[in-house]
Design brief:
The chain has 527 residues and is mainly alpha-helical. It folds into two domains: 369 residues, no CATH class; 124 residues, no CATH class. 70% of the residues lie in helices and 1% in strands. A two-stranded antiparallel sheet has the order 1-2. Helix 2 packs across helix 17, helix 9 crosses helix 18 and helix 11 runs antiparallel to helix 17. The longest helix has 34 residues. It is globular. The N terminus and C terminus are likely disordered.
Length: 527
């Protein structure tokens, strides 16, 4: 790298930023639409609170986050002299969005009959999560150094395949007239390299086509996207200008629910640490090296600011950096998304957007990101580590299946316990196995993937150390358990401990034979 290259000012915006902006912007839009629906229709919060307090605070948090990561990318581009540095994507944490809604805010709202109490409990949950992130930021770099890339990216791929890809894929095939067609529009451009006329971004083409099909079908009575003129008219009632206001009293009033909150705040704080490490590792695999401590600390700080202004949802670095980079995203797309969020959240435009754009037109973009991240785990790690990546996926498959099964049973007014685990087992549903394997899936996937990698590399002491770590995490409920506690799943913890002893014992013996990872032909095939 020459001195001239290093001192050259990076471009704040390039033409290909438009692709990433429309892709990432629609991703953010989807999350904001879902989040608004949870607040209004699940928690039954008044529109004055949703559009006047929570969304403006959320917009401030996300704008600070996207601007900060644009600055980090600018600094990296300036330091290296490269013109292909892509900012880390960030926004409200989607898994936590559902956790804080259904595990914290909804039960307390139902118990007290007051959605404001549920709001204050959600703020306290984010308050503690923020400090866990800030403290954990100084530990995370060490964890990254000792953990194999296949384990980090493998458990990330598990999240992408299940909780990012599956729902959009199902939505697409529920309304294929829009979803499948829009998916093809995206695939031919982002994977096939096809350029649309005048350089129009594929994401914008897909959304425009989806809106045209949805509203066209409404006019002829088919109503594929669920669009109605009445919903558009109602959306204008939420127009206005609202800026975030301090919510200190609301935050501290929620401390009365501290016992319920800490049960999930601690394990999900650890989840955040691992997820952020995974996403930083994913960016590094794509060529952009960002400091883990700075990333985690920033997530904690902006989440705390959002919380103190009234936002009960935590910020996170998003999965998907390689996808936005492959689209041509650099520095500007991140900052532009932050400005977009401010406009959407401070002017009450979210309700109007949800009434105009069918969600199924946006779903293909999320599926594309899931595909790319799942592929990256295999493409940027040694081929011999592929079995470890598959193993890291397994806990996430169990977690996704359990969520689907629990939802179906709940809709039927029952639960697995009421039906009976034996009866479920008779029809092939091993519910208890799903329950144990799914607990703490992101940590379980990381530990199992690391053990497998070190076994493949015949580093049995390292494999033993990760097995012992798995035993400790499992004993206290961070893995293979529904909640933090003492001896949550003791039999699984004991099994991990036994594996640790076994692997340590193997390290005392020399490896005397090589086992191929795949069978190889030893004779010529018959003709």
């Amino acid at each position: 790298m020459t001195t001239a290259a290093a001192s050259r000012k990076p471009a704040l915006w390039v033409s290909s930023d438009w692709n990433a902006f429309f892709g990432f912007g629609t991703n953010i839009l989807v999350n904001m639409l879902v989040l608004t629906g949870l607040l209004r229709y699940v928690l039954k919060m008044p529109d004055s609170l949703v559009f006047g307090r929570i969304l403006p605070a959320l917009g401030l948090m996300m704008c600070l986050s996207t601007f900060y990561y644009a600055w980090l990318a600018y600094r990296l581009a300036l330091k290296t002299g490269r013109d292909d540095v892509c900012a880390l994507p960030s926004g409200v944490s989607v898994p936590h969005m559902f956790v804080v809604t259904f595990v914290i805010m909804l039960p307390i709202t139902i118990k007290t009959g007051d959605p404001l109490k549920g709001w204050s409990a959600g703020l306290v949950w984010v308050f503690f999560q923020s400090f866990i992130l800030m403290i954990g930021g100084f530990i995370a770099p060490y964890i990254r150094r000792i953990t194999p890339r296949a384990a980090l990216l493998g458990t990330l791929a598990g999240v992408s395949i299940t909780f990012i890809s599956m729902r959009p894929a199902l939505e697409m095939y529920m309304t294929p007239e829009i979803g499948v067609i829009c998916f093809a529009v995206i695939l031919v451009s982002w994977f096939g390299g096809f350029k649309y006329p005048k350089g129009i971004p594929a994401g914008l083409v897909a959304i425009g086509l989806g809106m045209a099909i949805a509203w066209g079908s409404t006019l002829v009575g088919l109503n594929y996207g669920g669009m109605t003129i009445k919903n558009v008219g109602n959306a204008f009632a939420n127009f206005g200008f609202s800026v975030p206001l301090p919510a200190f009293n609301t935050v501290f009033s929620g401390f009365e629910f501290l016992g319920v909150i800490l049960v999930t705040a601690i394990p999900f704080g650890i989840y955040d640490l691992v997820e952020a490490m995974d996403n930083v590792e994913s960016a590094e695999a794509a060529g952009d090296v960002f400091p883990t401590t700075s990333v985690l600390t920033a997530d904690g700080v902006v989440s705390l600011i959002g919380c103190l202004m009234g936002n009960p949802f935590i910020n996170a670095v998003y999965i998907g950096h390689p996808g936005w980079k492959a689209m041509g995203g650099r520095i500007g797309y991140s900052a532009a998304t932050g400005l977009m969020v401010i406009v959407l959240s401070w002017f009450g435009i979210i309700a109007l957007m949800s009434s105009l754009i069918p969600l199924v037109a946006i779903s293909p973009i999320l599926l594309y990101i899931g595909m790319l991240i799942g592929a990256q785990a295999f493409q940027t790690t040694p081929q011999r580590h592929a079995p470890a990546i598959v193993l890291a996926l397994v806990p996430h498959l169990a977690a996704w299946c359990k969520v689907q099964l629990d939802g179906a049973l709940s809709a039927a007014g029952t639960s697995a316990a009421q039906v009976g685990l034996d009866k479920l087992g008779q029809v092939g549903v091993l519910y208890h196995g799903l329950e144990v394997l799914a607990g703490g899936a992101i940590l379980s996937g990381l530990v199992l993937g690391a053990i497998a990698v070190f076994i493949i590399e015949k580093k049995f002491i390292s494999a033993s150390a990760f097995a012992a770590t798995g035993a400790l995490l499992t004993f206290f409920g961070f893995m293979h358990g529904e909640s933090v506690g003492i001896a949550v799943t003791p039999s699984v913890a004991a099994a991990y401990a036994a594996v640790a002893v076994f692997l340590f014992g193997l390290s005392r013996f020399p490896v005397t034979m090589e086992i191929p990872l795949a069978p190889e032909a030893t004779t010529a095939p018959a003709e």
